[in-house]
Amino acid sequence: MDELLPLAGYCALMSGTPGPNNMMLVASGAHHGYRRTLPAILGINAGGAVQTFATCMGLGALFTTWPALHAALKLAGTLYMLVLAWKLAGSAAAQDRPPERLGFAEAALFQAVNPKSWLKAITLASVFMPPQLGIVPGALLVSLVGALIGFPCISMWALFGTGIGRFLGSPARRRAFNAIMGASLAVLALMLLR
């Protein structure tokens, strides 16, 4: 229990604070509602759990051995987030319709290029892996705790977006909201690049 509380606290902090996943969930919740955003929430959770498990099983050691591989993945993730930010910011400018929503598979795969997800997975593997359980059970425990804590935390962001969506009745408000969310995602991507 002494080790589970800090692990749960770290997972809540990483899942509950602003990041690429949460910015996309706010936008999706605002445009599509919580129920239609749920596949993305589940995809983020599943992708994060697989990523954490793989990292606990040794991917973190690979990145430590070849830092250039991690740097390349970080750059690719930042560029992808900038593309998403551009699409989000311009989604309602050309035509008056909401941006496409991420599905389960897209959200799960996005974790592979999300720098914040990698930071979380590597920290979970290096700081919170319980060595007394063995590698596979320890990796499963850390991944499961991350997913269980992450689900309500990221759901709050989608619900926040759903609440905001009620105020986006006019095309001008939707365009402004999309521009703000796109700019926020772009700034976040550039900050994670450091």
From TrEMBL:
Pfam families the record matches: LysE
Family matches, as InterPro entries: LeuE-type
Predominant subcellular localization, coarse grouping: membrane
Domain of life: Bacteria
Cell membrane keyword on record: yes
Stretches that traverse the bilayer: 40-63, 75-94, 139-164, 176-193
Subcellular location: Cell membrane
Membrane topology label: Multi-pass membrane protein
Keywords: Cell membrane, Membrane, Transmembrane, Transmembrane helix
Protein name per Swiss-Prot or TrEMBL: Threonine/homoserine/homoserine lactone efflux protein
